Amino acid sequence: MFKNYLITAARQLVRHKLYSFINIGGLAVGLAACILILLFVRDEVSYDSWLPDSDGIYRMHSTFTMPGRPAFRTVRSSGRIAYSVPDNVPEAAQVTRILQISPTVLKDDDVFQESISMVDPNFFDVFDLPFAEGSKETALPDLSSVVLSQTMAGKYFGHEPAIGQTLTICCLAGQNIEVRVTGVIRDIPRNSHLDLDIITLINREAFRNMGSMLESWTSVNVYTYFTLAEGFSLEDLEAGIMRLLRANISIPENAPFSSVDEFYGISFISAADIHLEARDQASDMGDMRPLGDRTTLYALLSVAAMVLAIASINFMNLASARAIQRAREVSLRKVLGARRKQLISQFIGESIIVTLIGFVLALALVELALPLYNDFLQRQLALNVAAEPSILAGLLAVALVTGVISGIYPAVVLSGFRPARILKANQSADPEGQSGIRLFLVVAQFAISIGLVVATAVIYSQTSLVKNSSLGFEQENRLILRGIGRSGVADNQNAMINDILALPGMTSAALSSDVPTDNFENTDLLRVLGRQEGGDIILNVASVGYGFMETYGIAPLFGRTFSREFGTDEFIASTDPEVQARATAVVNKSATRQLGFKRPQDALGALFSSTPFGADEGVFEIVGVVPDFRFRSFKYGVQPTYYVNAPGRFNSLTIAYRPTENVDQLIGQIETIWKKHAPSVPFLYEFMNETIRQQYAVEDMQFTLFAAFSGLAVFVACLGLFGLASYAADRRTKEIGIRKILGASVLDIVRLLVWQFSKPVLVANLVAWPVAGYFMMDWLRGFELRLSIEFVMFLFVAAGAMALFVAWATVAGHATRVARSSPIEALRYE
Amino acid sequence: MLIRMNDITKIYQTDEVETTALNKVNIEIKKGEFVAVMGPSGCGKSTLLNIIGMLDNPSSGNFFFLDEDIAGYSESKLADIRKQNIGFIFQSFNLIDELTVQENIELALLYHSDVSAKERRQRVVEVMERMGIAHRAGHMPSQLSGGQQQRVAVARAVVANPHLILADEPTGNLDSVHGEEVMAMLHELNKQGTTILMVTHSPTHAEHARRTINLFDGHVVTESLRAAE
Q1: What is the pLDDT of residue B112?
Q2: What is the spatial distance between Cα A364 and Cα A357, in angstroms, rounded to a whole number?
Q3: Please, are residues A14 and A305 in contact by the beta-carbon 8 Å criterion?
Q4: Which residue has the higher pLDDT, A69 or A407?
Q5: Predicted complex ipTM exceeds 0.85
Q6: What pLDDT was estimated at residue A828?
Q7: Closest CA to A688 of A502, A492, A512
Q8: Residue of B56, B97, B111 lying closest to A743 (CB–CB)
Q9: Which residue of A has its CA nearest to B49?
Q10: For a 10 Å CB count at each end of chain A, is N or C smaller?
Q11: Adjacent-strand bridge partners of A148
């Protein structure tokens, strides 16, 4: 019996090639999409799962909520806290920190810019990283020891043993230090939030003169990790840390908040959850490696389920639509004594066979697509079914479930035929209501497809709106040189700038502490002089040099920007404690609101006192108001900011140049000048427009994934519609013949068939729009700058029209062929 | 002259064989005639009917409809001539399963853009009453007996007031009682002036016709006339 089933199934597949192609092809594409998505998801959830006790190591995040400012959330925390934890917070078993800096490393005559992770001595007790040379017991005995990753050891010492070798790091506290290698760890796997290459101990004394780095309770510069003491929960730990903060932070008089809890918040996240959840809890900047997020994973998983659902619906629809052709077989089997149960298992079996063939094809498709997929994702995902039988079993289970689900409906329909009726009269075997279910399924397919297209269109439009919206400054042809405040360059800044400006094609150059795209929050308390009411006001501060606004094409709204002509613009700290330094300041428009001025121009001439960068106090006169250009990306709000001209804080140089064909030559020339003036400092440059683009790299990647898989869903849905149209055209051959004889033209017939398939698509729109609308509006609410309702509605209509058009294109071919055929062919053999 | 066929030949060609369905057939049919076409299976009866119905093109020869040589007419022009002049009745009724009796009949007028919706309904109701199927207007074809289905088919054929009705074995699927009923209807239509060309196997039914054309192997073998009643 089973052999007979197999033979029937095989012959069905071979004979009805279009039908088989659509079913197997659709299922293969659907399953392949699923597998690819699952591989990505598996990789995302695997982050840090290799790290011993990754569930039990918690990182502390900080949130600052200042009145009138968007909350500043960060994955970093105050470096000061850890020093007081052992004696004051019994809830913590261990606390350890990572402080990353980017000094230069000297080896013989070579200079390299490296990221160095400075850690606490108990670091390897908390993070049990595997060592390739040495061990955690002998690693980092003192301040002049260093642990390297294998890659770094290879880079500096080739194949020689690294332990005992030395490197020079420049500079800590203004001087070179020589460090000795005491251990080599295995490279941190790619699926980790940690990015550690060169590890030394934190030298508290070396940072003493940079007060905010490790000694401030509110300045956040380090990653702090905790393990819980026996019997305590995370809530206990949070309470303990808050206790510590309350005891040590004194609220300045006149501050717009009265307690630590009001503006300072902390939260914890386990190392295992960092990759997927840190972004929700903090922000997506400041982590060691790019983060993922669960929402994207859920979105992708639902797309995977939808593609599979669409492929299953194809199978159900085509199999039940073809029921007529198999009615005779079913009836005969029944006459010969088959029970309904047997028939149902026969048809479900066929469905499973089809799904399994699709599954094997899907594995092949995945193998073909993986190199491209990996290239795109910048990962090394692999599907090795032989090495991972559990994966194979899981995927096989998905395929089998798909097969059974797809098979049940057609099996029930087919096995339900009454043989007497089928065999006696050559009547329509389409039972009442069955075409209704098919219609419902087609509507479901297209509703899913339209929903996905709508979502894709909204995400794309919103992303391009944000990307293409003016950030308020010129970003093309702007070159940024980093590290210009380092010792070794700082003294030669002006000479270097003059040399650079002498190059052909240069238009301007300006120094600043930060440049747009730097995500920073540097807040100060300000007090407007001569005003009684109200407390202090919190503003962001940046130091910008002469010509900075002009270099970025920013014109003041009112007043002026910094200019050498006045001689009063530079802020130089006062050396006499009795005398306050005076300088001028420029503020952005939202800062004038924050400062309490009704109209921006009213701020001109106002005096305020503040302590820029928490270092030196001064009195500033507002001489200009500039627009709210974006220092941070559109993902975050505008920060009310004041700008001072404090040369001691300059660290970046922006160079504006005329568009040139030969950027490489330009870079070469500038590098030559840099090396002349600062031979001991590595030459680091970036292009503003590229940096801005990179801010959206993760979003772009997620969007492309989503769009590609949505496209596949639509494709599979159309495949099904194509099959259904071909079936409908065949089934209606007689009717079409009659209509033609009665005088219908080819166009009449095409219209008839196309309309038949337009109806479900139109209904699908009505189903898809409200659902997609609900989710997409919700998503859009997360953006400060977002698409207008009218435009979103336009996208909905456009997606619907596109679905209709695709359906027409799919059906019209069949319709035309059938409509053109001679009616006597259709009616000859009744 | 309604129909004039000069040396009409129709050859069907497949990969291996060439079949001559009609071989130099010459036929003339005047307006108002009732002509029966007889002959064994495969003699070319249906082919003849299809060519006269403009559903198929002859391989050679000239075909004049209302004294016009229709060779070279476009498909849409032919469709126009067809819907203005010709009604079809088939052995297997060829009703559309998904449409009601009324809708099936109405279909024949649907492609006549000069007939208003109101007039269309009126004519359908008239013809249903004439054919005695008005009480079945809302039924589906599958709910009717064969005789009733054929009456619907006849109603559909005549609703557009064609000059010519082509009937391909209209009684072939019916028992003798119902067969006679349909023949009586055709007879009545002919009396009112409609030209009828009917293919039949039944000598009894052929007797309703004034003239019988016997086809054999693609040739007209005999033509016999019956005296007017």
Answers
A1: 78
A2: 11
A3: no
A4: A407
A5: no
A6: 58
A7: A512
A8: B111
A9: A824
A10: N
A11: A184, A198
Note whether B111 contacts A734, CB cutoff 8 Å: no
Q: Taking a C-beta distance cutoff of 8 angstroms, is the pair A739, A821 a contact? A: no
Quick: pLDDT tens for A131-175.
999 999 999 999 999 999 999 999 999 888 999 999 988 776 667
Of A185, A196, A213, A206, whose CA–CA distance to A143 is shortest? A206
Q: Which two tokens stand for residue B100?
A: 């009601």
Q: Are A822 and B56 in contact (CB under 8 A)?
A: yes
> Token pair 């040396």 is at which residue?
B7
Tokens of B11: 């050859």
CA distances from A173 to A140, A177, A205, A458 (A): 20, 9, 9, 51
Residues constituting chain B = 229
A771 and A455 Cβ atoms separated by less than 8 Å:
no
Taking an 8 Å cut-off on Cβ atoms, the answer to whether B50 and A824 are in contact is yes
* Residue carrying the six token digits 């059938």: A818
DSSP run (H or E) holding A586:
strand A581-588
**Predicted pLDDT of residue A635:** 65
pLDDT category, A427, cuts 50, 70, 90?
very low
Contact B94 A738 (CB under 8 A): yes
Residue A209 in tokens: 């003169």
Which of A352, A338, A260, A653 is CA-nearest to residue A490? A653
A743/B53 CB distance under 8 A: no
| Distance from the B229 Cα atom to the nearest Cα atom in chain A, whole angstroms | 33
Q: Are A596 and A534 in contact (CB under 8 A)?
A: yes
Is the pLDDT at A228 greater than 90? The verdict is yes
**B46, B83, B90 member nearest A743 (Cβ):** B83
B112 in A contact zone (CB under 8 Å): yes
Q: Cα(A639)–Cα(A826) distance, rounded to whole angstroms?
A: 74
Which one of A732, A738, A755, A816 makes the best mutation probe of the B interface by having the most chain B beta carbons within 10 Å? A738
Q: What is the interface size between A and B, counted as CB pairs within 8 Å? A: 57
Tokens 């004394």, residue located: A205
Q: Are A144 and A225 in contact (CB under 8 A)?
A: no
Residue B199 has pLDDT above 50, yes or no: yes
Chain A touched by B211 (CB under 8 Å):
no
Q: Are the C-beta atoms of residues A527 and A608 closer than 8 Å to each other?
A: yes
User: Looking at the DSSP assignment, which residues form a beta bridge with residue A369?
Assistant: none
In sequence order, what DSSP letters do the residues of B10-29 get, joined into one string? EEEE-SS-EEEEEEEEEEEE
Q: How far is A350 from B5, CA to CA, in rounded Å?
A: 56
CA–CA separation, A447 and A769 (whole Å): 8
The helix or strand, by DSSP H or E, that contains position A265, with its residue range, turns out to be strand A264-270
DSSP β-bridge partners for residue A539: A524
Task: Give the torsion sign (CA, A81, A87, A88, A92).
Answer: positive
pTM of the shown model: 0.76
Q: What is each CA distance from A674 to A219, A492, A497, A586, A682, in whole angstroms?
A: 32, 10, 9, 30, 9
Residue in B75, B91, B96 nearest the CB of A735? B96
Q: Rounded to whole angstroms, how far apart are CA atoms B155 and B149?
A: 10
- What span, in angstroms and rounded, lies between the C-alpha atoms of A44 and A292? 7
Question: Comparing C-alpha atoms, which of B208, B112, B90, B78 is closest to residue B157?
Answer: B90
Residue A544, strand partner residues: A512
When mean pLDDT is compared over A65-69, A138-142, A289-293, A699-703, the highest value belongs to: A138-142
- What are A643-696's pLDDT values in tens digits? 999 988 898 999 999 988 788 888 889 999 988 888 877 788 889 888 888 777
| Pairwise CA distance, residues A820 & A742, whole Å | 15
DSSP string, A422-487: HHHS------TTHHHHHHHHHHHHHHHHHHHHHHHHHHHHHHHHHHHS--SS--TTEEEEE-TTST
- Asked if A741 and B82 come within 8 Å (Cβ–Cβ), the reply is yes
Chain A residue at shortest CA distance from B50: A824
